[in-house]
Specification:
This is Zn-dependent peptidase ImmA (M78 family). With 140 residues, the chain is an alpha+beta fold. It is built from nine helices and four strands; from the N terminus they run H-H-E-E-E-H-E-H-H-H-H-H-H. The chain has two domains: 76 residues, no CATH class; 47 residues. It has a four-stranded mixed beta sheet, covered by helices on one side.
Length: 140
């Protein structure tokens, strides 16, 4: 729904449309932080993290499903299932998979994750039957 509404799955463009500022900082072991400052939602993403787009997408999912603007949230683990599904579906669309099907059909899960620059668990979410995704991976 969000992709069709904003005509993009690019997390930076989505944040622009939603007036969410993204800041990159060295956050140590944390992946990111979500909070409000002067009535503006801010995402701090760890500048040293791999898969920054995935982590931003995950935090966006958390923003939509769980966020309370009165509380800041530190992300050191990605354990919210809805946010993981949101990030996986946002960044690894069925259309994208169909477009690259001939390239990825003989790859391992690790190689597919590397091909799309996503963590392995994002690929597993698609493979494990998120609606409308089983069909794609049944061809692999």
């Amino acid at each position: 729904m969000i992709i069709s509404h904003y005509q993009t799955n690019n997390v930076y463009e989505l944040c622009d449309y939603l007036h969410i500022k993204i800041l990159k900082n060295d956050l140590g072991q944390a992946t990111g932080v979500l909070h409000y400052y002067n009535a503006m939602p801010l995402i701090h993403i760890n500048s040293k993290a791999n898969y920054k787009d995935y982590y931003i997408a995950y935090i966006l999912g958390y923003f939509f499903f769980n966020f309370n603007p009165d509380h800041s949230v530190l992300f050191d683990r990605l354990n919210d299932e809805k946010s993981n599904v949101f990030a996986s579906e946002l960044l690894l669309t069925d259309e994208l998979l169909f477009t690259d099907l001939n390239t990825i059909k003989s790859l391992t899960i690790e190689e597919i994750a590397n091909f799309f620059n996503l963590p392995i668990h994002a690929i597993r979410i698609k493979m494990n039957g998120v609606p409308n995704s089983k069909v794609i991976f049944s061809y692999l």
